[in-house]
Amino acid sequence: AVTAAKNAKGNANAEICDFLNQLADYERNVSRNIHKYNAYRKAARSIAAHSLPLRSGKDAQRLDGVGKKIGEKIEEFLTTGGLKKLDKINANPEAAAIQLIASVVGFGPAAAQNYVQKGITTLEALKQEDGLSNAQKIGLKHFADFNERIPRAEVEALRQAVFAELREVDDRLEGQVCGSFRRGAATSGDIDILLTHPDFKSTGDGEALGKTKKKLDPPFDKLLDRVISHLKKVGLVTDVLSLGESKFMGVARLPETQFSEAGLAPPRRFRRIDMRLWPVDQYPLALLYFTGSDETNKTMRRKAIDLGFRLSEYSLRPMSEDDKPGRPLPVSSEKDVFDALDMTYLEPAQR
Ligand code: DCP
Ligand code: MG
Ligand code: MN
Q1: Which H helix or E strand runs over 320?
Q2: Quick check: is 141 catalytic?
Q3: How far is CA 41 from CA 19, 65, 317, in A?
Q4: Looking at 6, 73, 215, 247, which residue is catalytic?
Q5: How many Å apart are CA 213 and CA 279, to the nearest integer?
Q6: Predicted complex ipTM exceeds 0.95
Q7: Over the chain, what is the mean pLDDT?
Q8: 3-state DSSP call for residue 317?
Q9: What is the separation, in whole angstroms, between the first and last Cα of the chain?
Q10: C-alpha 189 – ligand 3 centre gap (Å)
Q11: Is 293 exposed, middle or buried (CB count within 10 Å of its CB: 0-12, 13-18, 19+)?
């Protein structure tokens, strides 16, 4: 019998996945090599899905997405318990500084690299810089809080508070918390809310509304604005990172009374919240996409391509011989998409 130690996700090869993900982060943020980043991530996902503990690099190479080079790293890790490449990365203060800054909300790898080149290597020094964007200032201000996972009970309390307030703005607004919360996760990195309205319709072309028309039609051009203003007024939203007609990224926190009434344990942290306003006819496709996981999305999009379709958060469309998308298929539930792709329906918790 296999008695390998498994992590919370049941991954027998957690340590291997962990070092592959560290290498992936390094490639994305420091080397800026997105291909290598994707390769490491893909190998890590493939190994995470493998239930038996890997015994050798050769063993690992049998898995999808694990080639010779990654196989050799796994061999080194299994035989020596470490990885020279990772030791070198971890001993490089410049690389560490880039990774640190790139992990702050509002900063990407390019900005991180620029600051480190200028000799800015700590968050304290970064805070003193002129010319930070509003989003970057907020990212720095809440750096510690944003690095904390959000317990499910707190997402639930925020969900109830937000949806109660939405009724005050427009009692026909509807929506759901998607992301890891909808998949049943015990903790979430942020709160992903998808909203819709029965009168808010797409043009039917299967594209993003913003792509075909510069502006949403009234009153929906102002609806998300009104939602966010109201949530700010009642103290649920504390900061705005960005706000467009259909996409909000910001910060939320439960007011003190609601926090204690929900029986949540202090400290009362600031949390990242994303909100999208979606046309009702495209809602099931957005629900599917924003529920994720990103891995399930990739699998489904790939499956769609294999079957001659194109799947997005806006539509499921057949592709013509010359690779042009046809008319969107009618989709009234997530299950319709699984059916069209000839896949067994997966409950959110299985995704
Ligand atoms: N998504 C995706 N590909 C990305 C980013 C996001 O398919 N590159 C989709 C799937 C995600 C959803 O959007 O589940 C929400 O994105 P999050 O980054 O918030 O991811 P999760 O909610 O899944 O996880 P977390 O708990 O870290 O927020
Ligand atoms: Mg999320
Ligand atoms: Mn999110």
Answers
A1: none
A2: no
A3: 10, 9, 28
A4: 73
A5: 13
A6: yes
A7: 94
A8: strand
A9: 28
A10: 7
A11: middle
